Amino acid sequence: MPQMTDERIRAGLTREEDLSLLHEVSMKTAGVSHLEMCIQCGTCGGSCPVAMDMEHTPRMLFAMLRAGMREEVLRSNTPWLCVSCYHCVVRCPQEVHIADVMYTLKGMAIQAKLYTDSTAPHFSQTFVDMVEAYGRSYEMGLASRHYLRHFPLRLPSMMPMGLGMITKGRMTITPKKIKHLDQLKSILRRAKQLELTS
Amino acid sequence: MNKYLLYPGCSMDSSAKAYMESLNEILEPLDLHLEEIEDWNCCGATEYLGINLIPAYSLIARNLALATKQMDGTRTVVAPCSACYLNLAKADYYMQERPTLGAKVNEALAAGGLEYKAGTLDVRHLIDVLVYDVGLDTIRSKVVRPLSGLKVVPYMGCMLPRPDYQHRWSDHEHPTELDDLLRALGADVIDYPLTTECCGGHMTQIGPETAFELIRRLVADADERGAQMMVTVCPMCQMNIDAYQNEANHFFGTNYHMPILFFTQLMGLAFGKEPGDLGIGVELVSARNALANIGVEVPVTQEPAAPRKKDEGLPMPRRWTRHEGKKEAVK
Ligand code: SF4
Ligand code: SF4
Ligand code: SF4
Ligand code: SF4
After folding, report:
1. Which class in CATH covers the domain with range B143-292?
2. What's the pLDDT tens digit per position in B201-242?
3. Are residues A165 and B110, on separate chains, in Cβ contact within 8 Å?
4. pTM for this one?
């Protein structure tokens, strides 16, 4: 765990929780994140196809984590724009699990209610609700609920596409349920009580 | 007979049913037997991982646990969708890399009477099995209608060759498996440096401007290189480039017409199967003209109703364009 230094105190970072942010994020990430090993080389940002739309490059975001800037990090649009293309991941000299860290940050931002644009969190939540209710995803219901809520302007241009998908039999109108939905629900109920902290 | 366990994923009987139909057509000639995992559930795509970790991994791992019950004679799970493949492979890998994760996921699985010991199964993508198990020589030997004259770009997408936990692919950025397979079918394969660039994934749903730009780059480059079609190995890539191409065209004021088919559809054609049995014709950007180049006639399927030309009745909101989509630059 990083030590409290003069620089950190002068920079106004006095709270213990700030200093442990990097560690917290690392611990909450699925595999062994290697986040602590980031050497700030910038390879990730240079490899990222969506860097142009990001408020902070991944490198910058990781420096902010190290600096304990919890709110700024959790408000950043960066994790939400990450398309999980893993370009940065295979190029990172330190093998930081960058894409997985982005997932962790999304989860933390949702919990802290610190995201600025609700489109992505709502999409994820709608998707997950669907999966929890049926065990399968249900594209038709997902698409319509999502567009009505977030992109009503897009609906007219989406309509020929949606119609095409339906007449060509590529969108199901009724959801499919798995047989042992109760089993899945018990698993997820138990899973929600468990967290990854150590 | 080569037996494998199949994790189809939700797209295979809806948006990507053409993938499933064409896969079914090539199993017999290749002597492949795929046994579907009983009562599999959605893997959560990239959505659940960003909400809650242990449930996300438990959702994925339920499928792995179910698969172990059908292991009779095989330990390989095959996924035709790149996103499913990555999720299953990732859960298996991280449950080993991080034993705490493995333990918690198993605690959750136990609530449903299931268990999965990480490393028990081998998770692979369909094209990996076709190229490395079945082999290009066998595939070549089944070709009765070589695809020569069909100019294609191989589009691998991003989640297949990366992060590559099990070191399966020839390269992470320029893998050649799909090129080699299409060449074995006799197609004219055009080099496509963007082959593993992302098509936007779920950004077509949540950040369309970002996704449209990624789609535009892929389609424009394929077009400039003289491709008649793109070939994909993933339902999500197919959906993004096929179903959103028109919207992207509208957004940029371009007029691309770049069909994208599944590699299994081209295998079926080369093996002499009928286009109608391979799900050809359900793509929204029609491949009919491209296939006419090699003398394949695609039956006409029902076209979507044309949008009304004139504004009549209720005033409709304007269509989404680049101008509305882009944030104004701050001066
Ligand atoms: S590429 Fe890796 S080491 Fe370099 S800045 Fe990015 S995360 Fe850090
Ligand atoms: S995985 Fe995410 S952060 Fe990394 S290059 Fe791709 S989009 Fe950028
Ligand atoms: S990745 Fe997509 S198709 Fe595959 S199981 Fe998950 S949601 Fe279904
Ligand atoms: S290219 Fe796009 S759809 Fe295909 S695997 Fe990558 S993110 Fe998913």
Report:
1. alpha beta
2. 777 776 788 889 999 999 999 999 999 999 999 998 998 899
3. no
4. 0.87
